[in-house]
Design goal:
The chain has 20 helices and 2 strands. With about 475 residues, it is mainly α. It has 2 domains: about 10-105, no CATH class; about 115-480, no CATH class. A two-stranded antiparallel sheet has the order 1-2. Helix 2 (about 40-50) packs across helix 3. The longest helix has about 35 residues, at about 390-420. The radius of gyration is 23 Å and the shape is globular. It starts with 11 loop residues before the first helix and ends with a helix. Keywords: Membrane, Transmembrane, Transmembrane helix. It is found in: Membrane. It is a multi-pass membrane protein. This is O-antigen ligase-related domain-containing protein.
Amino acid sequence: MQKQAVINEKWLLPVSSLFFLAGIAAYIFTGTTLLLFAPLALFYIVLAGIDWRTAYWLMLACIPLSSQIGLLNGTLSTSIPDEPMMWVFFLLFLIFVSYRPTVIPMWWFSDPLVWVVILQYLWLIVAVCYSKVLLLSVKFLIAKSWMLACFFVFPLWVFREKKDYVKALLLFSIPLLLTMIWATIKHSQDHFTFPTVNKAVAEFYDNHVDYSTVVSMFFPFLLVIYPFLKGKPKWMRTILILAILFFLIVIFLTYARAAVLAVIFSLIIAGAIRFRLVNFVMPVFYGLIALLMVYMVRYNKFIDFKPNYERTYMHTDFADHLIATFRGQDMSSMERLYRWIAAVRMSRDEPVTGYGPHAFYYYYKPYTLTLFKTYVSQNPEHSTTHNYFLYMLVEQGWPAMILYAILVVLIFAQAQKIYHRFKDPFYKAVTIALAMSFAACFMNNFFSELLENHKIGAMFYLTLALLVILNRKSKQLVNG
């Protein structure tokens, strides 16, 4: 799709100036700081109307720097500035599709990955219709809609040449590095202690889990850059090596066990793709999980893992935290079991459509087992299942969980085909980096439910979108 101006360029300066002055006047009279940002918001809307590609790149660069804020006395929240930017692109998406329905090419619909995502979205609508918390579920659906429009559909019109992939890498990596440096400096002021990591990342991330997930998902892209620096000045390779080491140190200092596993799993996936073995990875993974479930449930073996309430608490030292994990005395691990058991028991009552998006918190307490209760079981932060498969099962039913399981298998299988279809080292590197990034997301998501986070969700769907685009490009090159 060619770059089209939705707004006449001659109106940019006068309209922006008018609203800038209006924003200052409104701030003077009301004292509301948020009104100062209104002119910037208008400028972005006008920019999107005149040059939406530039506006898209700007949105991508703002994702790592965005921060969550509360609205209406905490009843609503959004992340500034990336989510308002997403709203603009969701509106543009509706305009483009309404104006010219064929703007999405037919080849896009022939990709099986696209159809799994479409089926997920359609089933989400069904789950929302049967939701027990309709208003919250509708909000979830709207947020998912703009996320898909911005990062699953729009990349189709943005990523055309190699320079687009390089630009995206630079625009995302530089702001991400800035947030990492900021968080590391803040954390160093508390001597990198385990209990203070959430405070250190609070300006840009909800918690250390979100932070570690974003960092571990981006890490593979640094690894695939190194071969392309052969023959380049030594200082470039030195900077990259330092960046890789910095990422590894940061991942360790987040004290997120899932992120460490994510890095390891991403390396396993990379090796499996190179040796054409990736199609065995997820079936084996699912098989082991199924066997474990049968073993635990059939003879009630899971009861043996019940925590000692007095000895199960949050440790302030990370080494003690790891030791407690293996002993079954770590509070976060035992709380996961508490939620997982409740989720499985809940699914028996609403197996098809689930309770509805965002409903878990309001219905899970009667399904818990007091044997697994911990000090944090009151759950004041309203967190959910701490496993994305169970999250899908409880809130959207068996079809949603099965579709997610299929999606994971399909992505790795498709990435392997694309990787071996390409002869161009650049596109091979991009493909394997995307697969590794998805693998890191999958492992983090196995112990949480992260795709609704604005940073992680954007990276997740952008990964899927780029694999669809590369699938098409690799077939075109093979067919001449």
